Amino acid sequence: MENLLTWDDTFEIACALRESHPYVNMEDVSLTMIFQWTVDLPEFQDDPALVNDTILLAIYQEWFEEVNPI
Questions:
Q1: For the chain, which residues make up each domain, given as ranges?
Q2: What integer is the mean pLDDT of 3-22?
Q3: 10-67 sits in which CATH class?
Q4: Residues 44, 13: contact at Cβ < 8 Å?
C-alpha cells in the first residue's frame, strides 16, 4: 500500500519535492510553486483548501534544510 501524504507530512512532502525537482534553485522557489508541486504529487491526498502559508513555509524549510544541511 502506498503511503499517502497530507499537509501534516511536511518533511515527507519536502523529500518528495526534492526527488521530483532535484535541480531547482531554492532561492527561486515560491510558496505558490510549493503548493502546486505538492498537490501534483501522486501520493498527495489532502484537501488543497486546508493549506496556509505556515504549512507551505514549513515544507520550504524542510526542503531547504535537506538540500543545505548544516
A1: 10-67
A2: 96
A3: mainly alpha
A4: yes
Whether the per-residue pLDDT at 2 is higher than 70: the answer is no
- Provide the 10 A C-beta neighbour count for residue 13: 26
5-11 long-range contacts, Cβ below 8 Å, gap at least 24? 5/38, 5/41, 5/43, 5/44, 5/45, 5/46, 6/44, 6/45, 6/46, 7/46, 7/50, 7/51, 7/55, 10/55, 10/58, 10/59, 10/62, 11/62
Q: pTM of the full predicted structure? A: 0.91
Q: Are 12 and 55 in contact (CB under 8 A)?
A: no
